[in-house]
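Let's study a protein:

___
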Amino acid sequence: MPEILIVDDEHAICQVFSDLLQQQGYTTKTAANGEDAIVLVEQNRPDLILLDYQMPGMTGLETLQAIKQIDKNIPVVIMTAYGTMETTMTAMRLGAHDFLSKPVELNQIRSLVKRILDEASAKKIQPVSQSPQLNSSTIVANSAAMQEIFKMMGLLTTNDLTVLITGESGVGKELVARGIHFNSERKNEPFVAVNCAAIPENLLESELFGHEKGAFTNAEKQKAGRFEVAAAGTIFLDEIGELPPVLQSKLLRVLQERKFERVGGTRELKLNARIIAATNRDLSQEMAQGKFREDLYYRLEMIKLNIPPLRERKDDIEALVYHFIKIANKDLSREVHAVEPEAMRKMLNYPWPGNIRELEHAIKRAVLLAQTNTLSDNNIELGSSEAQQNANAQSQPFDSLKAATKSVLEVLSAEKNTQFVDKSLFHTVVSLVEKTLVEEALIQTGQNQVAAAKLLGLHRTTLRNKIAENNE
């Protein structure tokens, strides 16, 4: 029977987890601190350890390191109410199998334990190798979605895989790229950021690859491009979806051969830098429309990180608010230390179409306008005309859908509509909406089933089956 060691200085938590896991048929042991946990591990190797991060005496990370020195193959799950990007990435790099934010749901513990032990019984678990301690970062997040991002970032710091970061404008894609770079072995090498949308198309090739003297008009001397300047560091290609077709082909060659030439030159230069790309576009749709090379996409998408918009991770807003207040206090020489509840509610309920960038600007403006050391509702100015229009534009299609659904329900639920008696009302409405979605997607893509499937986020076979069902 698998044995699980629970390490937490709160006795109640140890007891609850122990009772839960014993009900699942596992043997459990508990320890109130890191020192006791190490003794138990030395006496008998458990199959899994649930380890609290914040404990008196040895910290969770110190305990994790000691456990890995005893037996590096024991899976360890770190639990904490103080999760940050730094702690999550450090834990993953030091060999943690997973990272949970407190309060932890019992169903989450139950399913996680089962999954880890099932993996262990199928094959020997390979933990992440140890690496030096991480530097601090400016990314602040408490949400479960961002904790998953932090875990992946921690794993990516130990290799040189190409990474594609996706997400709306303002979610912090460059911060994620910087976090990966500055916590990797390349941290002492250059981090070179290139905004592909900000550089004129006729200059972009020279900016990326450099040029030789006389390569074109006004090329009076040799110039090193961004790939060359990045050396053994990281080159961050932001807004990669804006790259023109000719440069897409050249970038594909760079990724395939790790070589390039300056514009007007013939000598091959070796690419030593890691490539991280980012986009706020749907590249799948861009490929379907012939605007982005499919082979380049799959080269870039070796590892894909999708950063959720701020409206989908409300748990991060309060922490970000206080983080940006500290920055604004320093920049503006102010002394704001608190936020009135009504002001915080206002920010929590706002959709933030501009994401973190918009929140940062709103807080900086609020700190500047504050007459006391507490931000009030009146200090928080939200929704510039442009941002509000964007938010309204995003919600209008769904408002229309809600209205249409309401009308359909009213009609179908009427007693006179006996034709629906034998069917579930829910399935009737869903099938009607599904049929309309398929028909409209085919119309918008000119009856191209491949493009329609990508537009709907469906597999081609699934779409074909639905078309067949609709034609029956």
